[in-house]
Amino acid sequence: MSGAAGSPRARVLDGPYVKGAVVTGVALVVATAIDRWAYDTVRMSGVLDEDWGRLLRVMGFMGTWFVLALAVGLHDAGVEPPLPRPRRRAWLVFLAPAIAGLAAEVLKIVIRRERPALNDGDYGFRPWSERPWSGGGLAFPSSHAAVAFGGAAMLAILFPRARWVGYALAAGCALTRILAGAHFVSDTVLAAGIGWLTAQWLGMTGTASHLRMTGGPSTQAEP
Known about the structure:
Elements: H1 2-5, H2 8-14, H3 16-41, H4 51-57, H5 62-77, H6 88-111, H7 143-158, H8 163-179, H9 185-203, H10 207-213, H11 217-221
C-alpha cells in the first residue's frame, strides 16, 4: 500500500497538479467570459515601444531563459563543496519554459483559434485545409505566456523566496500580449496553466525539490 501511495501516479493525484488543473479550468471560464470586453477596452497599441513593455515581453522569449539558465549553471559550477550534478538546476530553468512553449505551439495547431485581430475581436478558427501545420496567426494558447510562466514556476520551485518576482514578470509578459491585441485573456490564462503544470511535472520526480531543500546550491546561496 505504501508503495502505491508513493508512486508517480499517486503523487500526481495527491499533489497540487489536479488542483492546478482545476484552477486553470475555472480561470479559463472566467477569462472566456471577458475576452471580448478586454479586447475592446484593455488595449495599448504602443506597449512594445515602451522600455517596460519590451522588458516584460522578453520573458516569453527562450533566449532570456537560456541566459538565465547559463547564469545558474555558472554559479552552481563554482559552489563549494562541488555538487554531484552541478548542471541540473540550469537544465531545469531551461527545460521548463522550453517544454511549456512547445506544448503551447502544439495546442495552437490542434485547437486552431486565430488571433483576435483577424476576426475583429470575435473567435475564429482556421480550417485544417488551410496551412494545417503552421502556428502562424494562431493564438490559443499564447506561447509567449507559456514560456514565461514555465520559467517563472521553475524559479519558484528552485528559489521560493523570490517566487513572486518571476510570477510578476510572467504576468507582465501576458499583459503585454493582451495590450498589444495579439491575444485574448483566455489565451494567456491557458498558457499560464500549461507553464505552471509543466514546471510541477518536471519537479515531480523530486529533482527540483531536492535541489531546493537539501544541500544543493539554493540553500547555500540564499540566506
